[in-house]
Amino acid sequence: MHLGIRNAPPFGAGFVKDTYDEFGDPIDKFDAFYIDVYEVTVGRVKEFLKSSGYKPDKPINWVELY
């Protein structure tokens, strides 16, 4: 039976290592770094939202912007 998968090992052949390394190089450690010109903390953003009355278009859960 052909399922459109090329070069697939037979069922039960075990783990086959891919040639693409999804993890890349090891992680480098840094003391500190800047993402933007100004450092802004979560607390400062919360303060801004509360004092300005600004309402974002989508809810913020501090992990993802929906």
Tell me what you see in this structure:
The protein is built from 1 helix and no strands. With 66 residues, it is mostly helical. The protein is elongated and about 60 Å long.
Defining traits:
single chain, 66 residues, mainly alpha, 1 helix, 0% strand, elongated
Cα distance spanning the termini: 43 Å
- Categorize the overall geometry: elongated
Largest sheet: none
Secondary structure tally: strands: 0
Question: From the helix content, strand content and strand pairing, which structural class follows?
Answer: mainly alpha
Radius of gyration: 23 Å
Q: How are helices and strands ordered from N to C?
A: H
Q: What's the helix count?
A: 1
Tell me what portion of residues adopts beta-strand conformation: under 5%
Overall pLDDT score = 72
Helix content: 10-25%
Stretches with pLDDT under 50, minimum 5 residues: none
